[in-house]
Amino acid sequence: MKILRIDMSTLTSSLEDLPEEWTIIGGRALSAKILNKEVSPDTDPLGSDARLVCAIGPLAGTMAPSFGRMSVGGKSPLTMGIKEANVGGSAAQRLDKLGIRAVIVQGAPSDGKMYIAKISDTGVTFDDATDYCGMGNFPLVEALKEQYGKKVGVVSIGVVGERMQKSASVAVTDKDGLPSRHAARGGLGAVMGAKGLKAMVLDDSGVSVVQPAHKEAYRAAVKPWPDSLKTNPNNTMFSATGTSGVVGVLSGMGSTPMLNYSGKVPEGIENLFGENIIADPDKRGHKMDACMQGCMVKCSMYINNADGSQLTSAFEYETIALMGTNIGVTDLDAVAEFDHMCDNLGVDTIEIGSALGVAASAGKFAMGDAEAVKAILKEIEDGTELGTMIANGVVNTALELGVARVPAVGGQAIPAHDPRVGKPTGVTYHTSPMGADHTAGLMYEMKDEGAVQHSLKMQIIEAVHDSVGLCQFAIAGENPMTVEFCKDLINACYDLNITEDDVVNVGRDCLRDELEFNKGAEFSTMHGDGPDFIRTEVLPPMGMVFGVDKADMDKIWDNLDTISVL
């Protein structure tokens, strides 16, 4: 396997051998190792010395079921610490088939222009992207397909990334060629923009699926996995309604952000319940599908317009909550349109939705006013003063509006799982090297006692998932089953004899590397202890606050090497 290095300052590329000791390391863990090796923690995340890393897992190109996630990594301009944003779609499988475990992007063009980098089995070529600047992700991808071929994959940024604004995401085309999957958190689209890279075009035509070293062992490992997935009841729900299926349950607990994290239920919220969205599929043609080839869960919800045309193809809980209930909008069509607009702009819907909630509470528009939200999203596109404020995230929005109640931890917006209900999730927000990121360790447990230990276990296991490229929705009901599956597949593919502990230690090492980076980064000193309101404002209807002791959270990493997750 190779590491592809792209130097935007010289518009050149080179291939380097993946170190043997990194054979089983991919995704988030590989990104962390590269960043620790090559980037000073105090570097400017938008400077030429920074790096953008796109790293995949060790199984992506084999088409192993749901192992096609990609980690986009760098120093975050939002949190000012190390960041990994995880994304599905087609990129990881394409890169692995091209023999590439990671792409490292460094430098920046001296001419200030934006460029397209085309990656194929014959190498990397660079094309001037001037004609594509200012394009949203959807028209951009269509234009790139016209230039490079209908079957290419694309990793791209929208206009917000070009402007290096802090909510910018990195878009990845799905299996249908739509830029609907986003490495959204942490503003890494701004890092890509700072590199002068509008898009990477991935052309894997003429290359084959990666063949495991031991095909029979590989098939034997994969064969029982569909039945293993059935041990996790969430998978059945995700297959039926996607992540929208949790809106009813979590909003009923108060966990879903509603009216700027107040817990007050907006009128018409049932319109956004997954079971209601799919209740009449013949009327609108709503469907569930996979974002990548080989997915067994197929949790991606497609929403159509009333005339049957497609409106959005990755309608997920986080977007429904932050761009819907959090700002009082419960009309399905409106929220789906917001989703499409955000995908086109290339922004994190969590960060934008949270910033909008603060803006509404400060009187910039009325809660529930869908037309006002559309107008603000257009202002983001146009780069107005208001649009720029929102596009730079919730902390920036609160600062500019003089708002003290900021729903963020570690410089990043709190996701759609209120820490007052899911106490281990709240611990993750406060302690993870990622800042407030539910994918770093999500767990619902309503007691403050034991929350630190629960969070630590989840942070380790989620680091494993992100590092092997496995979708967090395609896991068995018990950690040992999933870890054993990863171990068996890796052994079959690489002719190894690793153990379950070796797999878990990839996650431990990943966290260790991330923590080490953040020791020297501004992240460790600039953000404080998190918002006061989650400890003082009682969240209805369960009457809960976040009460985990800070001293206990400060000790979470003392047990990183010893706590059992199996």
What do these coordinates show?
With 566 residues, the protein is of the alpha+beta class. It folds into three domains: 2-202, Aldehyde ferredoxin oxidoreductase, N-terminal domain (Aldehyde Ferredoxin Oxidoreductase,  A, domain 1, 4-Layer Sandwich), CATH 3.60.9.10; 240-400, Aldehyde Ferredoxin Oxidoreductase Protein, subunit A, domain 2, CATH 1.10.569.10; 423-474 and 499-559, Orthogonal Bundle (Aldehyde Ferredoxin Oxidoreductase Protein, subunit A, domain 3), CATH 1.10.599. It contains 24 helices and 17 strands. The longest helix has 20 residues, at 500-519. The mean pLDDT is 96.
Question: Can you summarize this structure?
Answer:
The chain is an alpha+beta fold and 566 residues long. It has 24 helices and 17 strands. It has three domains: 201 residues, 4-Layer Sandwich (Aldehyde Ferredoxin Oxidoreductase,  A, domain 1); 161 residues, Aldehyde Ferredoxin Oxidoreductase Protein, subunit A, domain 2, CATH 1.10.569; 113 residues, Orthogonal Bundle (Aldehyde Ferredoxin Oxidoreductase Protein, subunit A, domain 3), CATH 1.10.599.
Descriptive tags:
566 residues; alpha+beta; Aldehyde Ferredoxin Oxidoreductase,  A, domain 1; Aldehyde Ferredoxin Oxidoreductase Protein, subunit A, domain 2; Aldehyde Ferredoxin Oxidoreductase Protein, subunit A, domain 3; 3 domains; six-stranded mixed sheet
